[in-house]
Amino acid sequence: MPIDALISLIGIAMAAAWSPGPNNALVASSGARFGFRRTFPHVAGIGIGFPVMIFCIAIGLGQLFQQSTLLREILRFGGIFVLLFVAWQIANSAGKATKKQSGKPFSFLKGAAFQWVNPKAWVMAIGISAQYVKPDALFSTALIVASVFLIVGFGSASSWTAFGAGMQRWLNTDNRLRIFNVTMAGLIVLSVLFIASAELA
User: Fold this and answer.
1) What is the pLDDT averaged over residues 154-183?
2) Cα separations in angstroms, 141 against 5, 55, 174, 200
3) Is 76 buried (19+), middle (13-18) or exposed (0-12) by CB count in 10 A?
4) How many helices and strands (H and E) does the chain possess?
5) Which residues 6+ apart lie within 8 Å of 75 measured at CB?
6) HSE-CB of 135 using CA atoms within 13 angstroms
7) Is the whole-model pTM more than 0.70?
8) pLDDT score at 41
């Protein structure tokens, strides 16, 4: 991959990974509730799960997805349902500041599996694969793209988790905790609005 294409890929990866979305809202909320250490398996699930997903899409799965309108619409509406359910759970979780440690954070497998039902992840993976993965160097360029997202994804998810964990001292009242939870849920709802109008092919 030419160096100018690699620099462009890194820039797009950083913008996509660091911008507010379902993954970042989830780990920020988890960091606020459970702290950084307990949320790290979720971070690892995102950091490894999405690069694996984008690699699979790049080497052929994306072609099947683009050829099936039914599959795209099932993913769109199924993903919207999952995201709205997650947003509802976040908005209503830890209603009392004294109970913010109740429940369990995502495991590594749950964090990785979530990528496959996250329509925003599919939009990103297909768009970036189409732009940067070259048919004449399929595996090598797919591996480069996945590696970039491995590094950038870990950095982004870790930072959003640290942000949530850093908010723990401030989230010591019911009202503050409620505002934080609703804000994180709102970020997911905004992603749903984007997904509802996006062209997934």
Assistant:
1) 85
2) 11, 9, 49, 22
3) middle
4) 9, 0
5) 65, 117, 119, 122, 200
6) 2
7) yes
8) 96
* Sign of the dihedral through C-alpha 14, 19, 23, 26: positive
Q: How far apart are CA 113 and CA 115, in angstroms?
A: 5
DSSP code for 115: G
The alpha-carbon radius of gyration of the chain (Å, integer) is: 17
Is the pLDDT at 94 greater than 60, yes or no? no
* Selection from 9, 39, 19, 77 nearest residue 158 by Cα: 39
What is the token pair recorded at 41? 């398996």
Sign for the pseudo-dihedral over CA of 70, 139, 112, 46: negative
Distance CA 123, CA 86 (A): 19
Nearest alpha-carbon partner for 46 in 129, 105, 114: 114
Residue 103 CA to residue 51 CA, distance in Å, equals 28
> Cα–chain-centroid distance for residue 87?
13
Contact, 25 vs 39, CB < 8 A? no
**Class of residue 141 by CB neighbours under 10 A (exposed 0-12, middle 13-18, buried 19+):** buried
Inform me whether the pLDDT recorded for 98 exceeds 50. no
Nearest C-alpha neighbor of 179 from the set 171, 169, 187: 171
